[in-house]
Model the fold of this input.
Amino acid sequence: MRQLTDKTALVTGASTGIGLATAERFVAEGAHVYLTGRRKQELEAAARVLGDRATAIQNDVSDLDDLDKLFERIADDGKRLDVLFANAGGGEADQPLDSLTPEAFDRTFGINVRGTVFTVQKALPLLNSGGSIVLTGSSSARRGVVGFGVYSATKAALRQFSRVWAAELAPRGLRVNTVVPGPTDTPGLRGLAKNSGQEHALLDDMASSTPLGRTADPAEIANAVLFLASDQSSFITGSELFVDGGEVQVYP
Ligand SMILES: NC(=O)c1ccc[n+]([C@@H]2O[C@H](COP(=O)([O-])OP(=O)(O)OC[C@H]3O[C@@H](n4cnc5c(N)ncnc54)[C@H](OP(=O)(O)O)[C@@H]3O)[C@@H](O)[C@H]2O)c1
Done:
């Protein structure tokens, strides 16, 4: 039995990486998926992979007008949402406090925090009772990784929003949970490692930060998101699900 038959899901940041792997899994489980991202070419390539049960909408979550257009389009299609995976986000390598700029701070908070907050807010009128909201956290929010202060603070902020939203939205029949990936082999992580100028060293270092001694495949994160999105997790809200190879639990 497929787990998302006849459900409609929105996955933000689904043109590559964790979002794309999750959109693929949702489609395989019977959902219709709306997917977003800023780059047209990557988004179209993802939509081709997903086939006719996917609708790609070019969108920037840090732009509130763009977000309004996204939800207007879904409503115009006559759809409502059962699942929202608010995943769009990312970070920049090497932002230690002494060289951090206000622009870099605003960029990362603008996408990861502001973008996620208003994605969820603007999705609310379309979300069906019984629906599931999943946010993407990060294991780095539980650790003191040098140079990742802003990024990990954005993910810590999301974790706290998810607790409060779980309480605020329970009366509407909505659950809110956070999936917490450890280092995951995505174009995003590889780009970050490349920009650091120490691509292989950084990836090796991240792999060895997990007791399992490797990075995750994005499909492994998608499995956990599917669990949180589906009725299999019907009594779970406000939780964090760590998919981090044991990084946080074993080496806190
Ligand atoms: N990979 C890891 O090790 C790891 C670990 C913990 C948490 N995470 C989190 O997992 C999520 C996905 O990251 P990933 O590793 O899969 O990276 P990725 O391969 O770079 O995917 C990020 C996706 O988000 C989209 N995106 C970025 N900014 C956006 C914006 N402002 N509006 C709309 N879409 C946007 C990207 O497309 P465009 O650039 O075209 O917009 C892309 O589709 C992020 O929230 C990240 O922080 C990743």
User: Anything to note?
Assistant: The two ends are 38 Å apart (CA to CA). The chain has a mean pLDDT of 96.
